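This part of the workshop introduces the protein records we will be handling. A record pairs a protein's sequence with a compact description of its fold. As an example, a complete record with its sequence and its structure tokens follows.

_____
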Amino acid sequence: MKHLLPLLDPRTVPSPCFVLDEARLAANAAILDSVQQRTGARILLALKGFAAWDSFPLLSRAKGHGPLWGTCASSVDEARLGREEFGGEVHAFAAGWTEEELDELLPLVDHLVFNSLAQWERFGPRVRAWCRDSGREISCGLRINPEHSEGAVAIYNPCSPGSRLGIRPHQLPEKLPEGISGLHFHTLCEQGADALERTLDAVEARFGKQLAQCRWINFGGGHHITREGYDLDRLCRCITRMQRNYGAQIYLEPGEAVALNAGWLVATVLDVVQADMPVAILDTSASCHMPDVLEMPYRPGLLAPEDGELRLAGENGKKAWTCRLAGKSCLAGDVIGEYSFAAPLRAGDRLIFTDMAIYSMVKTTTFNGLRLPSIGSLAADPHAADPAATARFRLVRRFGYEDFKTRLS
């Protein structure tokens, strides 16, 4: 069983609610593990993309039956979540660290990556002293910028002109500073192995001498490994090539690939108002609950009841009735997109936005005091004669007033 969406009855779910598909999470994890088994690479979960920790036992080698070696964090709090709830290796990188953050990070991390030589020179002695006193090793690395862009959207392109991320080729000495064990780079965003292959050409051309000194090399994130049609063979060749050339342990840290197409956002139509076109007001919000719709921007997939089944809504004008879907916040631009349906929507209709496990869940806000969507999961026994008969929705968490109040003062 690849996914459980056909087994989800949106009428049985609180609204709004993120629903995780445990079968799809497990299927994604199996694909990632096949890469590890074929190459010896270690794959980490990027918590910036997916941090729903109730599901970590499905993914973690240390805390469950999953294949992933650990997590990568972009902050102290992500590192702590990775250590406490996922286990395994904890890798951390940020554009800049503070002394206070270092004090909290050092007991949590196994790999610590610095964005500049200045940050390493400032904090390297502190890290070495802590390791000496604690008797525990932390492997330190540097993020490099190969000045090679693969990203199409500037806001998500780590190597765009003027990027603050990573050390440029002319800034890094041929001999790595003492205490540096590896290099980290990140050029991709929702891309295939062909983009990685081009990146590796640029990285080797500009940092080959330094790579030869590494115990580990981290390929960063943005690898859409679990997307249909992704070239797994090419990815494995890329990993093997770098292992062969430099004898280093290879790491990848995808976020999206772990939970791609593994969750939905269930919402309810509150009203339909007539503007220049019909506008359906939902109990969810692009601004608060799926901000990438506005930031990326993109139009999420949508399922709606039609002839007793869930069917994909059409583009503007594709089906009989077209409307604009909008959120309930006071932001004038809180608009999700235009969709067409077989029949007009009515108050009370349930809708399902697709591929909502990644980024949307970690980026939610309480702007306007709107409550965060509930979180639940759907699981079934794949070995049962009738998996549909075993499918169960489990409510993991509801949010309320205290979640809004306690983030302020």
Q: What stands out?
A: The chain has twelve helices and 18 strands. The chain has two domains: 22-258, 263-356+373-406. The domain at 263-356+373-406 is CATH 2.40.37.10 (Lyase, Ornithine Decarboxylase; Chain A, domain 1). The longest strand covers residues 263-274.
